[in-house]
Amino acid sequence: MIAAPDRTPLTREFFDRPVLEVAPDLLGRILVRTTPDGPIELRLTEVEAYDGQNDPGSHAYRGRTARNDVMFGPPGHVYVYFTYGMWHCMNLVCGPEGRASAVLLRAGEIIEGAELARKRRLSAQQDKELAKGPARLATALGVDRALNGTDACAPEGSPFTLLAGTPVGPDQVRNGPRTGVSGDGGVHPWRFWIANDPTVSPYRAHTPRRRRT
Description:
Blueprint: E1 6-9, H1 12-15, H2 19-25, E2 30-35, E3 38-50, E4 78-83, E5 87-93, E6 102-112, H3 114-120, H4 134-140, E7 160-165, E8 173-176, E9 191-194
Antiparallel strand pairs: 1-7, 2-3, 2-7, 3-6, 3-9, 4-5, 5-6, 8-9
């Protein structure tokens, strides 16, 4: 018999660790998104680590700005950014406070509230595609910049909660280069995913954007 996922909320101490410890440890955990229409639960299957001013691929590499302020802590908060003029992406901030680092949530399996996610992801042909990629994940969960800075470790009332779920064993964790990251940051093998999981997004190397003429 397969044991039911652990419904214990993750504490702030879970996130108050180096980002390369937190990122793979998030695989198999459950993200609960509370909405006025009901909850959506997502089992995390793919993430990427970003290590602040030590990481050329990080938004915080060149220091603190209004955009990346949430990345500097406290840990356990949600960092949401807007990209390509059309998509939102969701991250979880890790500690210690004052040192910017965060984990990008790249993909997951919707295990509850799929009917709500489908309404936001009309182009998804199968449920495994609902949150297959960071922009799709944020869209399925109804995440936008209004939720930037949300405390996912608040004792009650937060639109996000992380549950212990069923952590993935080391033999099931894979890692490789981050998707779409250019330059020196592109070489870091800081993308982590569950082996053979159908919700994991395909790897894509960085492709320079062409300027419109």
